[in-house]
Design brief:
heterodimer, A: mainly alpha, Formate dehydrogenase/DMSO reductase fold, B: about 240 residues, alpha+beta, 2 domains, two-stranded antiparallel ribbon, 10 strands, about 20% strand, disordered N terminus, binds iron/sulfur cluster, cell membrane (chain A)
């Protein structure tokens, strides 16, 4: 592999157009779902007055959280000055923008009145954490874009460190704000924990790095390159640290919740008898998203393929976690009259059911497709393939 | 009332049917007109509209208030309980310890510190000076964050296209809505439709009035008997109070 000069990417036009077509198809399906929902109303979705945020939010929040996490790779490079991460900073910035765009698009497409997006951008309730999030998201675009420019334009390289710092703190604040969307819902037992916001940061590290490793792995494979074993080892170990930390924090959160009497009913629901939510938690979030990837990473002789597989599992586990947090939190009955058994025509006192329709998944996958398309095109026209300086790497060893 | 009002209503009907979601003129929106008081009287914070519900009078199985609300606000009968709008609903309760059964209507509690208003990104959810919490359906983007935030499940999302509007109560697909305390009637000096219906049925379980006016029936009653704010632990200072729970 070359060290000083840029590693050129391979063109493979047929395959490139194939990727675009595949992504486009998903995007088209999402657009069809969007038109259908907006025309007929949300009655044609699985969402209702009890489960007001469904599958689209699961995907959207996942993408947004992962977007802020993927920027971590760049931060480690610029803020903490690690060369192998520095070489990956441009790709990390690109992925952050792409996933953020995908997530926000899904969020917007699921609004009751997406035609009023302009209203959302001009009317701000400054008390609302949601409005605050929108400002964080717009700022995120601007800062990360500036960061990319300073990294890719040699004459501006000098600014990249300072902009990198800004991006680092901005994304921490952004993820905290995203986590706080749930923290502010005082009435809902599921979101009562103060650990919600910090937990979202830990999750974002894991999901973001996993997404990065998938894309990086695919890019190397596309160009017939192999990632240097030392780099692979470091990055997979970092993923293990993040996944382990996410598991640990999840455990701490549920244990502290069990300690508070008010929360025990919800914990019982989630951990024991919540049906699909219990399954999604244990099987999805814990086993698929935590234990299996750790096993894959730590089993001797990890290969690039195995690291990609572990990353895919982390992403799946992340989607399961969002499903548990967002939908599970709404499925658990809102306690309006503690100490009473209640019933009504408005599903009071019962566990709400939710059967998402295909279109909701289409919308969610559309967000991923949008991020995918942005990435594929950008990687083709600009140099995003990590350019490792092996001499420096050796000197470090 | 006056001819002017009739004219205005006709105009509103046309505007609601034709323009739908377009603001009538800069700064003027349907909801504000619907909420405007006649006789050029401003909404004032001297008044705090409230309701007191006597659960010992509320009959299990009676849904007069619900029907009256659906009729007044053109919500229609509840055919799809999961997605149809329900601004007011009857909840049947059974105390777990004693087995005591009771029934009560639940609707927007018109919180003085409303979480729905706090979280609303656009400011579509707002509280009038007189304590009535409303949604400006021309600013609402249908994000449903307020529904996530309301501790009483008091809000509904309009899941389907609908026809048949009460021109005084603008509604729209893709927006969130909830009990308005029949602001259009109250501003004319009337009472909410549910309260009227409950009295007409002879139950008199709902008392409406100005909590700030020491001479009002509701303020007197609140002084005399023990009343409860639901989930008082959340300290939202509710406009709707209950007796007998
Ligand atoms: S009861 Fe719910 S909808 Fe009504 S003011 Fe309070 S939080 Fe808002
Ligand atoms: S649904 Fe409408 S009223 Fe509710 S928070 Fe969103 S914009 Fe505000």
């Amino acid at each position: 592999m070359a060290s000083a000069s840029y590693v050129e990417t391979q063109s493979r036009p047929a395959a490139f157009w194939g990727l675009l077509a595949a992504g486009g198809l998903f995007l088209l399906a999402a657009f069809a779902a969007f038109l259908h929902f907006e025309h007929s109303g949300h009655v044609v979705t699985g969402m209702d007055n009890q489960i007001v945020w469904g599958m689209p939010h699961v995907f959207a929040v996942f993408l947004i959280v992962a977007a802020s996490g993927v920027l971590n790779v760049a931060s480690i490079g610029s803020v903490f000055g690690k060369p192998i991460y520095k070489a990956r900073a441009p790709l990390s910035g690109l992925l952050a923008l792409a996933m953020m765009a995908g997530g926000l698009a899904v969020l917007a497409a699921d609004l009751g009145r997406p035609d009023r997006l302009i209203v959302a951008m001009t009317h701000f309730n400054f008390k609302s954490i949601f409005a605050l999030n929108m400002m964080f998201y717009s700022g995120f675009f601007a800062i990360v874009a500036a960061y990319l420019v300073t990294m890719m334009d040699r004459s501006l390289n000098g600014y990249s460190k300072i902009v990198g710092f800004l991006a680092f703190f901005w994304r921490l604040a952004l993820t905290t704000a995203t986590g706080s969307i749930f923290g502010f819902l005082i009435a809902r037992t599921a979101y009562g924990s103060a650990l919600m916001a910090p937990m979202f940061i830990i999750y974002s590290f894991a999901y973001g790095l996993a997404a990065f490793l998938i894309v990086q792995g695919s890019m190397y494979a596309w160009n017939g390159l192999t990632l240097d074993a030392r780099i692979l080892a470091r990055m997979k170990n970092l993923l293990a640290v993040f996944v382990g930390a996410a598991l640990y924090f999840t455990a701490v959160m549920h244990l502290t919740s069990l300690y508070f009497a008010k929360q025990t009913d919800y914990e019982r629901f989630l951990l024991l008898d919540g049906g699909i939510y219990t399954t999604a938690f244990w099987l999805g979030q814990v086993v698929v998203g935590g234990i299996l990837p750790l096993a894959l990473i730590f089993a001797p002789g990890a290969t690039q393929t195995r690291v990609i597989a572990a990353s895919v599992l982390v992403v799946l586990g992340g989607l399961a976690q969002m499903f548990v947090t967002i939908v599970g939190g709404q499925a658990f009955p809102l306690e309006i009259f503690p100490g009473y058994a209640v019933s009504s025509t408005f599903q009071d006192g019962i566990v709400n059911s939710y059967s998402p329709v295909l279109g909701e998944f289409a919308l969610g996958f559309g967000g991923i497709a949008l991020a995918f398309l942005i990435t594929v095109v950008a990687v083709r026209v600009l140099r995003f393939l990590p350019q490792d300086d092996f001499a420096a790497l050796k000197a470090e060893d | 009332m006056s001819e002017r009002n009739d004219d205005r209503r006709k105009f509103l009907a046309a505007a609601a049917a034709g323009a739908g979601f377009v603001a009538l003129a800069p700064g003027i929106r349907l909801v504000e007109i619907a909420a405007a008081k006649p006789d050029n009287e401003a909404v004032t914070a001297r008044v705090r509209w409230g309701m007191l519900i006597d659960t010992t009078r509320c009959q299990t199985g009676c849904t007069e208030c619900v029907s009256a609300c659906n009729k007044e606000n053109h919500l229609g009968e509840v055919k799809k309980p999961r997605t149809d709008a329900q601004w007011i609903r009857k909840i049947d309760l059974k105390e777990l310890k004693t087995g005591r059964a009771l029934s009560l209507p639940m609707m927007c509690q018109h919180c003085a510190n409303p979480p729905c208003v706090d979280v609303c990104p656009t400011g579509a959810s707002f509280k009038r000076a007189d304590g009535i919490v409303l949604v400006d359906r021309h600013i609402c983007i249908g994000c449903r964050y307020c529904m996530m935030a309301c501790p009483y499940k008091a809000r509904s999302f309009v899941h389907e296209p609908h026809t048949d509007q009460n021109p005084e109560v603008p509604r729209g697909q893709g927006c969130v809505e909830g009990c308005t305390l029949c602001v259009h009637r109250v501003d004319r000096g009337g009472t909410p439709a549910c309260v009227e219906a409950c009295a007409a049925a002879g139950h008199n379980a709902m008392l409406f009035g100005d909590l700030n006016d020491p001479e009002s029936a509701i303020a007197k009653r609140v002084r005399e008997v023990k009343t409860t704010q639901v989930r008082a632990d959340l300290k939202l200072d509710l406009g709707v109070r209950y007796e007998g729970i």
